[in-house]
Amino acid sequence: MSRKIRLDRDARRRIDDEFPEGIAEDYSNYDEYDEELEYKKDRRRRRTARLVIRLTVLCLVLLAVMTGALLYTGYIWFNEPRKRDYPYRGPIIDADMGKIGWQAFSQQNIQFAYITATKGKSYVDECFEYNRKNGEPTDLPLGYLHIFEPKQNGRAQAEHFIDIVGQNMIGRLIPAVEVEYSGLDRLITPDIENSVENLKEYVQEIESQYGVKPVLLCREAEYRQLILPYDEFEGCPIWIDSVFTEPDKDIDWTLWTYTPRAKYRYYDGDKYVDVAVLNGGKSDFKSILVPKNVQ
């Protein structure tokens, strides 16, 4: 099958001028090339290609915005632990939630809750007393959380926590301490040795008072840097904060914060809530309760 060659008007004229009359007068095997027409076609193709690219970019931007909005509003999460795999879950309560209607709040799909109590050597969550007073009469198991300051004396921090939450934790969840760098400390890591010594003092004081080692709440980075290398923290239940992926399989974790953007009812405002799951079922849940024979 022969292929036709495309010639524009100028090419055909030059052929006619070059060859005697009659030699190249038959152009049946040639297509006429219209330069202006081809230019218009090429311009339409470029416009179409640009339109397709712009629409594709727009769709990707809209998809990213919608995904971000759904993540921000808590409609979708990076992690969604199945209820049948992790039947025990509960939120971290703090002053940002405002006043809570505890009787109704405790009847939602939660099996426990940790109430933020103290931070450092002097700070007390402004809603702690209200939450303890109104939360304890419910059937919801409660525990208290201290936010650890790596640069401050660990024993002083533990004494502050004990002074605020009380000396008896029997029947409550094991006290928890959040060991996470924040603010500038995440960029300029404080003295590791000093941080570890302060944390050791805190753990020793809590164990001495309540007869149990506290739950250590941390990200995987702090776990590997401040906790894993030291024998003094052996036996402390580990609570991993990881909202993008499940905790690494080499970590023997007890609790896992899987989302910071859950929402419940029966509290003031639109505050999003951190929610954790327990690694296990009913028998495992007993392991994070302070037993009666330790104090």
Write the layout of secondary structure elements.
Elements (H helix, E strand, L loop, with lengths): L4 E4 H10 L11 E4 L1 H38 L16 E5 L8 H4 L7 E7 L3 E2 L3 H8 L6 E6 L6 H12 L10 E3 L13 H19 L4 E4 L1 H8 L10 E4 L13 E8 L10 E6 L3 H4 L10
Helix pairs in contact: 5-6
Describe the protein.
This protein is of the alpha/beta class. Helix content is 35%, strand content 18%. It has eight helices and eleven strands. It has an eight-stranded mixed β-barrel. A two-stranded parallel sheet has the order 1-2. Helix 5 packs parallel to helix 6. The chain is elongated, with a radius of gyration of 34 Å. The model has no long low-confidence stretch (mean pLDDT 86).
Strand order of the largest sheet: 3-4-6-7-8-9-10-11
Report the mean per-residue pLDDT as an integer. Answer: 86
CATH topology of the largest domain: TIM Barrel
Secondary-structure element order, N to C: EHEHEHEEHEHEHEHEEEH
Q: Approximately what portion of the residues adopt beta-strand conformation?
A: 15-25%
CATH architecture of the largest domain: Alpha-Beta Barrel
- Determine the CATH superfamily of the largest domain: Glycosidases
Q: Helix count, per DSSP?
A: 8
Cα-based radius of gyration, to the nearest Å: 34 Å
Number of discrete domains: 2
End-to-end Cα distance, whole Å, is 98 Å
Main CATH class of the largest domain: Alpha Beta
Helix residue percentage? 25-40%
Low-confidence stretches: none
Q: Give the tally of β-strands.
A: 11
Shape: elongated
Main beta-sheet annotation: 8 strands, mixed, barrel
SS class: alpha/beta
